[in-house]
Amino acid sequence: MATVHKLTQAEITSRLAEVPGWDIVNGKLQKTFTFASFVTAFGFMSSVALLAEAMGHHPDWSNVYNRVTIALTTHDVGGISALDFTLAKKIADIAS
Question: What is the mean pLDDT of residues 5-13?
Answer without folding.
Answer: 95
